[in-house]
Design a protein that fits this description.
Two copies of one chain form a homodimer.
Chain A (H helix, E strand, L loop, with lengths): L7 H6 L4 H12 L4 H8 L4 H10 L4 E3 L5 E3 L1 H14 L1 H25 L2 H25 L14
Antiparallel strand pairs in A: 1-2
Helix pairs in contact in A: 2-5, 6-7
Chain B binds a DNA duplex (30 and 30 nucleotides) through helix 3 and helix 4.
Chain lengths: ~150, ~150
DNA sequence: TCTTAAGGTCAATAATCATTGACTTGTTGG
DNA sequence: CCAACAAGTCAATGATTATTGACCTTAAGA
């Protein structure tokens, strides 16, 4: 297979199985040899590992010592996996940030003289506005999910 | 299917087919209805579209008007697709940037008095160092690829 | 020399995926 | 009322994917 002729869907095909994602994560840490991979994945079948490694041709290469490792497209795939995995946390992080903003300002309204409170209010509001823009416009995160397709 | 219980490999399964990636890109632009989707994909079979839309349950939802659209995980998948698609360009962009840096400095060495040239050299070198760090360490781009697995 | 391990390949089978085409159930315009 | 279209569902089929287990070759250690 020509390395440059790979399309996006082929990359995602290469990581659309739990074991292949585990392999991707293992190889991202450090290059690993065949038998080591088998042990770390807790499988006995060589054929199974062979099958999944062949599916990952185009993302996985062998170095001069015979260790399996990721090529640059493999690292791109890894960051794609991380992005999808962490996506739920971006929503949670925003909620926590907003609550912090709210609690902080209520506290300062009650405790701090007007002049100082107003400075804090300006700074934290500018911050939460920028963070909101980044979250909802740039990254297109939504706080509430839409309804699912009804097919059950 | 519970929306929150989706694993990464299921997301990638949902986009590991050319038609499903095309659907993802179409729905990212604006919500589309079933028959419109069929026309834009230039297919006649309703069953085929039904099959692929069902595979995308968990990233695709229907809004109140019956239009198909992406949920937040769908947009995460889209950015993953974009990242993988654009990956080749990150390498090219770096090469162009480096050549610009080199040509610019050669030009200024020849044309500009020493004092000014040194300022420009400092600024552009700081820039190329930061860009190199970002490219090779943070994003793990490689200029030359490693050898492929030999299995042909 | 015999055994064990590494580093795989291959064939058979079961399970899943993808496509086709027939079918259903509304809705809308003439 | 009828035709045409929207918005699907479903069964059948062939193609592909995933797993298992047998097999092979090479190298090291007892």
């Amino acid at each position: 297979m020509n390395d440059d002729s790979m399309t996006s869907d082929e990359v995602f095909e290469a990581i659309s199985h739990p074991m292949r994602i585990e392999i991707l994560r293992l190889l991202a840490r450090k290059p690993v040899r065949f038998a080591d991979l088998k042990r770390k994945l807790r499988i006995e079948s060589s054929g199974q590992l062979d099958f999944h490694l062949k599916k990952m041709t185009g993302i996985v290469v062998t170095d001069s010592d015979g260790n399996y490792t990721l090529n640059d497209r493999g690292y791109a795939a890894l960051t794609a996996v991380d992005m999808v995995s962490r996506h739920g946390w971006q929503r949670r992080a925003y909620i926590i940030a907003f609550l912090t903003y709210a609690v902080m300002n209520v506290y300062f309204i009650l405790m701090v003289p007007l002049g100082w409170w107003f400075v804090i209010f300006l700074i934290t509001t500018a911050w939460i506005l920028f963070y909101s823009y980044w979250t909802f416009i740039k990254r297109r995160i939504r706080l509430r999910r839409n309804g699912e397709i009804s097919n059950e």
